[in-house]
Amino acid sequence: MGFREWWTGEQHRAEADAPDVVPPSDPSTAITAPSRDEIGSRGVASREALGLGAVFRAVDIRATALRQISFDQKRGGLILEDRPRILDKPDPLASRRAFIEMTGVSLDLTGNAYWRLGYAPGAIKGIDKPVTAEVLNPNDVLIDTNSAGNVTGYRHRGKQLGVYDVKHLARLRIPGTPYGLGPIQAAQVELRGSLDVAKYGSEFIYNGDVPSGTLKSDQRLSKEQADDARTQWEQSRGGKRSVAVLGAGLDYKPIFLSPKDAQFVESQQWSVTTVARIFGAPRSLMLVTDGDSQTYQNVEQDWLGFVRFGLAGVLTEIEDALTDLLPRGSEAVSNTAALLKTDTKTRYETHNLALAGRWRTRREIREIEGLSPEPVGGWDDEPASEPEEVTA
């Protein structure tokens, strides 16, 4: 089963077979993740969670942000201009953006991501660095450990892989288990509640749990008389555009639901807010409405907080994993400038301050803006000279 099938299809058996907590050397002192047994048989798998529009949007926002980030090689405190191939295109069969996107989505949906590493012919694993990396379907991978809880290898679709064949990335590491903990696995109760509300709302509309109206009488009616009045009403009036004739003492009052009540607006807003909190997605992009007005400054701070605290966990995990694939003495650093770029007016004002303070040159500013080092026709710092007066 490929990555696309994992995204849209049934969960792979590995996800069900994977133990919630791999026994450590001393289980009594281990910090364990919430077990699926505590939730019961109604646990939420990643495929089901993606059925919630808010979850899909949160994952899509994070994936789109990751696609805009590039990674550079840093050595001796300086960024090297030439990127090694393992940074520029880790997977020969996928673009760099797709590689980073699949890694981030794996971490968000399962809490784990796995890269299968490829080596040059004759390379010694553990000594020589890999030259390629491929994102594996996280639901196809199982981790093998020894009695002390140390990772001894991996199993991918029944094939045994060594510790130098796979690079494991984790969203949140829990002492006592080699598996990472993702948002969906940690927030099973909240997500199940959102799914139940969505299901109830759908059944509420289509099954008609609320009666269309009430028949009221100013007289005491026996059960037989009440049933007879209801039957006659439904046969003569129910769902038909005809004139209603009521018996003596009967009065019909329809029950109307406001669009707000019929669509469970508050419950849906609560679900969106909860999902945004779980995934660390910016509330401005999730369209969270909690009564607070969003100014431009609030939105900018929202995005800045998203990069620093919502996305940084995944970014630093990818940085560390890529650093392990680089030659000794080099490290991979992410370039988040594309995400933190402000509007044109603010950027130009900042550039002017940098020029006035003489800590940045015009060439550097033009490079930041993606322009050529010099404007067409060269620099024109002096105003045009006044034409000389011609005297007779």
Automatic annotation (TrEMBL):
InterPro entries: Phage/GTA_portal, Portal_HK97
Domain of life from the UniProt record: Bacteria
Chain intervals with Basic and acidic residues compositional bias: 217-231
Sequence ranges of Acidic residues compositional bias: 379-392
Residue intervals passing through the bilayer: none
Record region (Disordered): 1-42, 215-235, 369-392
A UniProt-annotated Pfam family: Phage_portal
Protein name (record): Phage portal protein
Source species: Microbacterium sorbitolivorans
